[in-house]
Structures are given as C-alpha cells and as structure tokens.
Amino acid sequence: MDWKNSHIDALLEQALVEDRAAGDITTNLTVGPNLRATGSILARQEMVVCGLGAVPRFLEIFARLDKRAPAQARFEVVSHPEIFDGVHVHDGQVLAVIRHNARTLLSCERVILNLMQHLSGIATTAGQYVDAIEGTGARLLDTRKTIPGLRLLEKYAVACGGGTNHRLDLASGILIKNNHISLGGGLPTVLTRALERRKKGQRVQVEVRSPQELEEALQYGAEAILLDNMTPRQVKHAVDRIRKATAGKTKKEQEARHIPVEASGGIVLKNIRAYAEAGVDFISVGALTHSAKAADISLRIEAETA
C-alpha cells in the first residue's frame, strides 16, 4: 500500500480535520507543550495486523495542520521487523512504538486507533474465511460493499488477511446483474450487447439465479458466471453443468474453455466451506467489509524520562 497516495493522504487528513485534532482543547490545557512521550500500540486480542503504515502518515499530516513549533513535529515510529501488515499477532503483543511530542500523541490517538482497529478487524475476518476454505482450491473475494471513501483501504485489508480483491470499481470489470438484465431487455439481449461492445481483453461475467438463467448465460456466451443466492447443493449442480458444457477433449482445450465460477449471497463463516467444496473457483463475501468487527487495539502513552 502506498500510504502517500494522494487519495489516502486526503482521507487521513480529513479524519484529523473531522476530529479537530489540531484544536484539542483538553490536551492543550492539561499537558505541557514540550513534554515528550512514548506511545505503545498494543494488540488486545489475536488478530491480523493492518494499518501500521498509516501511523507515521497521520503524524506527518498532523504536523501540517498544527500551528505549534515545528520542533514538536519530530517523531520516531519503531516496529519489530517481524510485525507488519498481514502478520498474525497475539493478545498483548506490541505492534509499534511511537516517540513524539506528548500533545501530538494524545491528539492523534483516536484517529490512529479508529483506522487500525477497523482495518485489522477486516484483515482478521478475511483470515478466518480463508482458513475455512483452505485446501479446497476456491479463493475468497471481497465486494464493493465498502464504506464510502474507504474502499481502497478496506480492500487492502482483505488482501492482508489472505483474500483476493474483486473489481475495485464499476470501471474495473463487466458484471451483468439482474437489474441490468431486467432494464436492458433480458439476458440474451444484454449479454450479446456487452460481448459486441466490450473492449479487447474485457471479460463478461453474468449473474444467474436459476438453472434457466444459467442455460441462457451459457448459450449466449458468458465468459464467467456468478451464482447468486443459491444453496451449496444448487451451486454443485450448476458447477457440474458448466463444466459439462465447457468440457474439452484435451487438458489444454479444457483450460482454454474454462469458465470461472463464483458463488455469492448468504455465505457466512459457518457455511463457506460447503460452497467451496461445491467446486467454485471464487466465493465473494460482502461481510468481509460491511460487517467485520473492529479489532481490539490500544495505545498506551507514557511520559519519557530525562
């Protein structure tokens, strides 16, 4: 992750502005302006870490917003070499140590924790789903069900947990869903239109919800299939039908005709393995980003001794 990306930079700055961190009344009234402190970021549960790179960026951006003496912007962030985004850690482990002006640490504490807890929660949840389908050959995908403005970071968190990113946005891939079908004149019409008009290299994926829609998708040339809101048993039947329709006489021919199959809808941790064992290539889960529980992380701040 490029934490100096202009989009990310603006997002982090907005978080500080929203909290009015540079105008922290309580801290400015109670803590001396020249006090130095050490802040230890601690894991309070087993988790997959995500968001460490945001810590120095928050402090650098805060220095731009803060009107106090430039010398107070001097800081150091130290983490152990074995701890980085995507690593599994245990309860009580120190993730990073920040040496900085005490006022700055207090003023940035909440935004640092908010982001790291959210992203680490997503990474941890993704890791649990990936573990649940280990050995099946299926890959875990995220969705576009993300908090507005946070998609890039949330998808990064999914990747840190071992998941695979689906399309980033509406311009990143062609996925014909039921509303496109109903508004565009039916599956044969919209699929034919998409295949004729798409740019070179763009694959056309179609969402199907029944055996009848699956037959139409196969008949009119769908290049990838999304099985939506089906039971594992229904998914297994659909996968068998797709593999039969695309069977080749040789392994090379079969690979060339292979249609990727994705399952989505109603898939949770307790049933995801059943979907994976049904033979799909991918399983997309919106809960990775829209329902992940925040990880428990704290920031312990202590005054530095002379």
List strands and helices in order, with pairings.
Blueprint: H1 6-18, H2 25-30, E1 36-43, E2 47-48, H3 54-65, E3 76-78, E4 88-89, E5 94-101, H4 102-132, E6 139-141, H5 151-160, E7 174-176, H6 178-184, H7 187-197, E8 204-208, H8 211-219, E9 224-228, H9 232-245, H10 251-257, E10 261-264, H11 272-276, E11 282-284, H12 287-290, E12 297-303
Parallel strand pairs: 6-11, 7-8, 8-9, 9-10, 10-11
Antiparallel strand pairs: 1-5, 1-12, 2-4, 3-5
How would you sum up this structure, described in words?
With 306 residues, the protein is of the alpha/beta class. It has two domains: 6-129 and 293-303, Quinolinate phosphoribosyl transferase, N-terminal domain (Aldehyde Oxidoreductase, domain 3, Alpha-Beta Complex), CATH 3.90.1170; 134-290, TIM Barrel. It is 42% helix and 17% strand. It has helices at 6-18, 25-30, 54-65, 102-132, 151-160, 178-184, 187-197, 211-219, 232-245, 251-257, 272-276, 287-290; strands at residues 36-43, 47-48, 76-78, 88-89, 94-101, 139-141, 174-176, 204-208, 224-228, 261-264, 282-284, 297-303. Helix 6 (178-184) packs across helix 7. Residues 69-73 have low confidence and may be disordered.
